[in-house]
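[Automated response] Your request has been received and processed.

Submitted sequence:
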Amino acid sequence: MLERGINSPLTSSCGRLFDAVAALIGVRTRISYEGQAAIELEALAERGLSSAPYPYQVESTDCHRIDFAPMIAAICTELAGRRELADVARAFHHTIADGILEVCARIRTESGTTRVVLSGGVFQNRLLTEEVAQLLSGAGFEPFCHRLVPPNDGGLALGQAVIAGLQLVASREKF
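Generated structure:
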C-alpha cells in the first residue's frame, strides 16, 4: 500500500506522528475523538524519565523537513528490549522538541530571526509546548504561545474568518 500510494496519503501533520507512536507502543490503536492518542501518549510521557532524544535527520533542501524514520527504528529496538513505555513516550516528546529546536536554529542561520510562534494542534500538548519553549529560550529564541486563541483548528478557523472579513471590508472600500 505504501509503495503504490493506496490509502496512504502524505501528511505534514505532527499529530499523525503522535498517533503512530501511540499505536506503536500500544497506547492506542483506535481513537474516538481527534487527539485522543496524543493525549494518552502525553499522559504516559508525564510519568517517564527524561533521556537523550532519539536519532532523526533534518533535510534542508527547498524547505526544512525532519525525517523521524531513525527515531521509529530506535523506538522499535527499545520496545524489543522492554524499555519502560513511559520512558519511551518521554524520549519521543524530547525528540520532537529537539527536532523543532534544530530546524529553528537552521532558519535563524538563514534569516536571522529569533522569534518563533508555536502553533498547530500539537501545541495543545502541554509537555511538548513547555519543553519546546524552554529549549528555544535557552538557545536565544523568543517563543510565542497561544493564550487567547487555541493553537488547533479553532485558531485556524478564526484566522480564516478574520482574513475573509478584511477582504470583505477591502472590497467594499473599492466601491
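Summary generated for your ticket: The chain has a mean pLDDT of 91. The longest strand covers residues 57-60.
If you did not submit this request, please reply to this message.
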